[in-house]
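Ticket #4471: complex job returned nothing on first submit. Input attached below:
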Amino acid sequence: MSHSSYGRLMAVDREHVLRSAAALLARSPAATMDEVAKAAGIGRATLHRHFAGRDALVRALESLGIQEIEAALDASDIETGPAEDALRRFVAAVEPAAGLLAFLVTENQLFEGDVHEGWNRTDARICGLFRRGQESGEFRIDLPAAWLSEALSGLISACAWSIQDGRVAARDFTRMTVELLLGGVRRSAQ
Amino acid sequence: MSHSSYGRLMAVDREHVLRSAAALLARSPAATMDEVAKAAGIGRATLHRHFAGRDALVRALESLGIQEIEAALDASDIETGPAEDALRRFVAAVEPAAGLLAFLVTENQLFEGDVHEGWNRTDARICGLFRRGQESGEFRIDLPAAWLSEALSGLISACAWSIQDGRVAARDFTRMTVELLLGGVRRSAQ
DNA sequence: ACTCGATGAGACACTCATGTCTCATTCGAG
DNA sequence: CTCGAATGAGACATGAGTGTCTCATCGAGT
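Support reply: We reran it on our side without changes. The output follows.
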């Protein structure tokens, strides 16, 4: 921390602010800039010094979300091994970012047409996972991979909300999400 | 239309306004009262004459949504027959209200804790459906019925959004939603 | 101890949606 | 045709959130 004029020194603070903002906005998407600042333990002025405005903050959260999801994709080594196992690993890895993902899903709903380019990238990888499973015979082929990707996002968001509202236990996140997506509700002969 | 002082005469107009508002707000939840009025083909003043304010409008939409879902529950005779068939009938019956349902899901996300009482009623019936399926041996019992109900809402919303964004075909709504929920993505021996 | 950058608090103006009001117009009933 | 209720258009005040600014304070490095 010798030369404080270098922007990267702010990275830790910026990171912390983004984490707080993500946690707050995932719960109350309509939260005020003032509330976001308070939640991060800083003043509103400082918040504006880091992020030009609310749009910039949301954009930064988008980037953070993309980054987390891509990190989960990488960490779970999604392109390797049986698709089912890869999906399990990915959902488990993406759990910490589930709230943020849920926020971005609804937010992207608002910004119709103005989607972050990175979003398409992660979506493509997830679609690729489902397509791989279909080609290998693990997954059924009568449902388009694009829909399966959307459904996965929907289920992750739904589970994150249910946990936030206390309707389901947090520790069951991965199991409930992935089990339902993989096996459905029908009791299979297996 | 003999005595125009009777409030029920406004029912048709009110209905039309609510339909338009539902269609618009399902796409852009942040739409202005002015946009809602324009979408309904009326002036903003008239809109305010029918609904005291934005809150009142949203409440009315909530009631309309509950009403539609309950109508779908009734029409699909959800308490009768095999749970799987009942679920299929319900999803097919609720399709016209899918956009409105998606709007209310995100809206309820905002109004945390302030849920419409009718919402719990419909949720209870849907939970009952899943529980019935579990008790009859049709559905798996390792996933709580409450979560299955949430997941159903999430899938319906996700499918409604995907259709709105043109990512999937509208005619596949029922099949994709119910097939995924019932069977999951795993290719079953069946 | 000094200095400089960053911060927090607050004041301020601006924007925008909302809610209320008025007024001219229209439409239907009598 | 006349009357009255409902409507549409617009003006207006209000409130909330935002973005920008200033200034006093704090803290780390020198």
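The CA atoms of residues 56 and 185 of chain B lie 41 Å apart. Closing as resolved unless it happens again.
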